[in-house]
Inverse folding.
C-alpha cells in the first residue's frame, strides 16, 4: 500500500515466504506502481528474506529398530531426515543423539544427487544380557538465530543369543535379622539373572553350605531365592552367619555368591553383677571412704543393649565409685551410727541402655558392729527414794536404771556408789547399791530425828573398753515414824516435892490454874499433841484445853469441893499408833492465902496428911496460943518484908521444879507470869514461908496479874502451901525450902 502523503510503500498484511515461494532459494514479489499528477508508472520487485520461523520436523515421532546382539560395529540403520520449511541457514544444519551413548552415533549429509540422508551407525558390539533394549533421541537443529530443533525417539531392541550363564546381582549379599525373630522369618533374597532367554534363562537357587556350621539354620527358596531361618538365632552364640548360595540355569550353567547374615542384637539379656569382695559387719566408727564391696557388671548384649549404668538407691551413707573398666566400689560417704541404724540393706541396680531397658538388682546387707561410743543413760535425771525410820537392815528402798544404746559387753551396765561425794555431800555408809540390777538398799536402821535425808551419787558404767560411765544423784528421804512419846516439860514429873497450884475458892469458871507444856521429837502429824484430863479428884471441876494444855476451872468452886485436888493429864500425839505421856498436877482450893500451909519438903510428910481440914484446925489452935507473943514480932517482919517486896515478888513452887519451868519459859509455852504479895497474920505457921526475889528480876510490877501496887496486899492463887509445923516464934517467915523459883 502506497501512502500518498508520505510517498512510502507499506505492507498491507503479513507475508509468509514459505507460503509464497515454498523452497525457492529466492522469493521475489513483482508489482506495478501507477502515480498520477503527474502520471507516472513504476515496476517494483520486493524480495522476501527468510526468517527462522519454522522448526525441523520428523515425519514420525518414534522409530524402533530390532538389532541382533551379534551385529558388527559399523552397521548402519537409516532414518528419515527432518524437514524444515525455512531455507538457507534457517534449515536443518546438524543432527545429534541425546543422551549420548557408546553404542550409536548419527551420520547425515547429502548424496551425490543432492538428496540428504540420516543414518544410525553402530559403534560397539551389543550385548543383550547387559542391555536388552535402549532408547534415545535424535535431535535435528537448524541454523537460525535463535536455532530451532526437532526430535525423534529411537528405540533399540537387542535380539538375544543363548550364550550366558546365570549371574548374581551381587557377589556378596549382606543381611540382618533380629535374634528374637521366629522360625521362617525372611533374612534376605538373592537374585541371579541369566541373559539368555527361554529355558536357558530360567534360574534355580540352592545353599551349598553354611560356613562353620554343620547344622544350618537357613533355607533358600529355589524359585524366588528367599533365604529364611529354620530356628531362632542367638546373637550371644554367633554374631554372624556366612552362607554360599548357588544359581543354576536350565542349561546347567551356574554361579555362586556369598551371603553374610548379621544377627542383630536384641536386649534379651539383663545385666549381671558379680561380687568380688564384700565386708560385713562394718564397725560403726568406720571412716568415710571405706570400701565395703567390690563388684563388676557385664551384659552379654552389645551396643546400647550392653551399655550398663549402675545406681545405688540410698546414697545418704553409701555411694558407688567407678574403679576400673566395669568394676565398681561400694564405699561409705558419712559416719555410721549403729544405735541409729544397725543394718543397711543396699540395693544396687544395673540397667542397660536398651529399649526397653533391662535391669538387675544386687542387694548388699551391711551389718554395723557396735563400738563403745555411748555412755549409759539413766531413765531419770535424779532419784528420790523414801525409807521409814527404824527400818530393818538391808531394806530395799528403790532402784536406779540406766540403759546403754550399745550392744553386747558395751551395753552391760554395772552400778556402784561414786567414791567422791564432795564436801557438800559427805559419804554415807548406810546406802548400798546392787551392781547388777541397780537396787538400792539401806544397810542399817535410820533415825529420823538424827538424819532426815541424805544424797549419794550412783555411777553406771558399761563393760566396754575403755568403759564409759554416767552419774546420777539419789536422794534418800527418811520418813518419820511415831517412835517418840511426848515429853512433859511442865510440870516436871521428877520434881520433889510435887508442885501444887493455889486456886482461890472465889474463882469463876474458866479460871486458868496451870498449863501443861509438852514436846514431841517426831515431826508432822506424829508431833501434833492433844491434852486430855485422864483422872482427877473431882473430874467435873476441871477442864483441859485440847490443843493448848491449859488447865482451867470448868465451874465455880463450892464448899463441898475438897481443898486438895489431884489431876492427871494425858498428853497424846497424833501418830499411828499414838504415843502418850501423863502429867500429874495438884491444886489447893483456898479462901485466902492466910490459909496457906506448905507441905514438908519430903514426900513422906505429904503422904501423912490425910485431911487438909485436920491440918487447918491444928494450925488455928497454935495460932491462938501464940497470938499475943507473936504480934509484935510479926508486925516488925511484915514491915521489913513489904520494903523488900516493893517491886512485887513472885512466889513459885518447890525448888525441884525450877529447872523444868525455866526450860518451859524459854520454850515460850508457859502461861504469863503472875506476881503475888502475901500478908500473914500472927497465927501463921513458922519456918515454912520465905520470900525470895524472883528469878526474872527484869519483870516490872506493871506485868503482874493483879493490878495493885507493890504496897497493897494481894492474895496468891496457885501457890502451894502446907499448914504443918507452923511455929509461933517463926510467924511471918517462910523457909527457903518451901518456896523456890521455878
Amino acid at each position: 500500500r502506497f501512502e500518498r502523503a508520505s510517498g512510502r510503500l507499506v505492507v498491507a498484511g503479513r507475508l509468509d515466504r514459505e507460503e509464497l515461494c515454498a523452497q525457492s532459494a529466492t522469493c521475489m514479489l513483482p508489482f506495478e506502481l501507477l502515480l498520477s499528477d503527474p502520471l507516472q508508472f513504476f515496476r517494483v520487485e520486493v524480495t522476501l528474506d527468510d526468517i527462522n520461523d519454522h522448526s525441523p520436523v520428523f515425519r514420525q515421532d518414534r522409530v524402533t529398530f530390532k538389532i541382533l546382539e551379534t551385529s558388527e560395529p559399523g552397521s548402519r540403520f537409516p532414518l528419515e531426515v527432518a524437514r524444515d520449511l525455512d531455507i538457507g541457514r534457517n534449515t536443518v544444519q546438524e543432527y545429534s543423539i541425546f543422551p549420548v551413548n557408546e553404542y550409536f552415533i548419527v551420520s547425515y549429509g547429502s548424496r551425490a544427487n543432492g538428496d540428504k540422508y540420516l543414518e544410525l551407525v553402530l559403534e560397539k558390539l551389543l550385548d543383550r544380557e547387559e542391555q536388552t533394549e535402549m532408547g534415545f533421541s535424535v535431535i535435528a537443529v537448524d541454523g537460525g538465530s535463535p536455532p530451532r530443533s526437532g526430535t525423534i525417539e529411537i528405540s533399540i531392541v537387542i535380539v538375544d543369543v543363548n550364550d550366558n550363564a546365570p549371574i548374581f546381582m551381587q557377589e556378596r549379599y549382606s543381611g540382618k535379622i533380629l535374634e528374637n525373630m521366629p522360625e521362617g522369618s525372611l533374612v534376605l533374597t538373592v537374585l541371579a539373572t541369566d541373559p539368555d532367554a527361554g529355558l536357558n534363562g530360567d534360574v534355580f537357587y540352592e545353599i551349598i553350605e553354611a560356613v562353620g556350621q554343620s547344622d544350618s539354620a537357613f533355607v533358600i527358596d529355589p524359585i524366588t531365592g528367599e533365604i529364611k531361618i529354620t530356628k531362632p538365632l542367638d546373637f550371644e552364640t554367633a554374631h554372624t552367619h556366612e552362607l554360599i548360595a548357588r544359581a543354576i540355569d536350565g542349561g546347567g550353567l551356574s554361579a555362586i555368591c556369598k551371603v553374610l547374615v548379621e544377627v542383630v542384637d536384641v536386649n534379651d539379656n539383663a545385666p549381671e553383677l558379680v561380687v568380688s569382695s564384700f565386708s560385713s559387719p562394718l564397725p560403726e566408727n568406720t571412716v568415710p571412704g571405706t570400701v565395703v564391696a567390690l563388684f563388676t557388671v557385664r551384659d552379654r548384649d552389645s551396643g546400647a543393649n550392653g551399655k550398663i549404668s549402675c545406681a545405688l538407691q540410698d546414697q545418704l551413707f553409701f555411694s558407688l565409685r567407678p574403679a576400673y573398666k566395669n568394676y565398681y566400689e561400694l564405699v561409705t560417704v558419712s559416719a555410721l551410727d549403729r544405735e541409729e541404724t544397725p543394718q543397711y540393706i543396699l540395693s544396687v541396680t544395673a540397667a542397660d541402655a536398651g529399649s526397653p531397658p533391662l535391669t538387675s538388682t544386687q542387694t548388699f546387707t551391711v551389718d554395723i558392729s557396735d563400738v563403745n561410743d555411748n555412755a549409759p543413760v539413766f531413765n531419770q535425771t535424779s532419784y528420790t527414794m523414801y525409807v521409814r525410820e527404824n527400818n530393818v537392815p538391808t531394806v530395799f528402798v528403790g532402784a536406779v536404771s540406766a540403759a546403754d544404746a550399745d550392744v553386747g559387753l558395751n551395753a552391760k551396765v554395772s552400778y556402784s556408789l561414786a567414791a567422791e561425794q564432795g564436801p557438800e555431800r559427805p559419804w554415807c555408809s548406810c546406802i548400798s547399791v546392787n551392781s547388777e540390777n541397780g537396787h538400792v538398799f539401806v544397810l542399817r536402821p535410820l533415825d529420823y530425828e538424827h538424819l532426815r535425808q541424805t544424797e549419794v551419787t550412783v555411777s553406771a558404767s558399761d563393760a566396754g573398753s575403755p568403759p564409759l560411765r554416767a552419774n546420777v544423784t539419789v536422794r534418800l528421804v527418811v520418813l518419820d515414824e511415831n517412835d517418840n512419846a511426848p515429853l512433859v516439860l511442865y510440870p516436871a514429873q521428877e520434881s520433889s516435892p510435887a508442885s501444887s497450884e493455889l486456886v482461890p475458892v472465889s474463882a469463876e469458871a474458866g479460871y486458868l490454874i496451870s498449863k501443861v507444856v509438852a514436846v514431841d521429837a517426831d515431826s508432822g502429824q506424829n508431833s501434833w499433841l492433844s491434852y486430855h484430863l485422864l483422872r482427877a479428884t473431882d473430874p467435873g471441876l476441871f477442864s483441859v484445853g485440847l490443843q493448848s494444855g491449859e488447865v482451867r476451872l470448868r465451874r465455880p468452886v463450892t464448899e463441898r469441893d475438897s481443898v486438895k485436888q489431884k489431876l492427871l493429864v494425858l498428853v497424846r500425839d497424833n501418830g499411828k499408833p499414838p504415843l502418850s505421856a501423863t502429867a500429874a498436877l495438884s491444886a489447893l482450893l483456898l479462901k485466902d492465902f492466910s490459909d496457906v500451909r506448905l507441905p514438908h519438903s519430903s514426900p513422906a510428910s505429904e503422904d501423912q496428911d490425910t485431911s487438909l481440914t485436920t491440918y487447918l484446925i491444928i494450925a488455928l489452935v497454935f495460932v491462938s496460943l501464940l497470938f499475943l507473943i507473936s504480934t509484935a514480932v510479926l508486925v516488925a517482919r511484915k514491915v521489913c518484908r513489904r520494903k523488900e517486896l516493893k517491886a512485887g515478888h513472885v512466889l513459885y513452887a518447890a525448888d525441884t521444879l525450877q529447872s523444868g519451868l525455866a526450860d518451859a519459859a524459854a520454850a515460850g509455852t508457859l502461861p504469863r507470869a503472875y506476881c503475888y504479895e502475901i500478908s500473914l497474920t500472927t497465927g501463921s505457921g513458922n519456918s515454912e514461908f520465905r520470900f525470895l526475889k524472883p528469878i526474872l528480876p527484869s519483870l516490872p510490877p506493871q506485868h503482874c496479874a493483879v493490878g495493885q501496887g507493890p504496897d497493897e496486899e494481894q492474895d496468891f492463887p496457885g501457890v502451894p502451901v502446907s499448914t504443918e509445923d507452923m511455929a509461933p516464934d517463926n510467924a511471918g517467915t517462910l523457909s527457903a525450902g518451901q518456896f523456890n523459883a521455878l
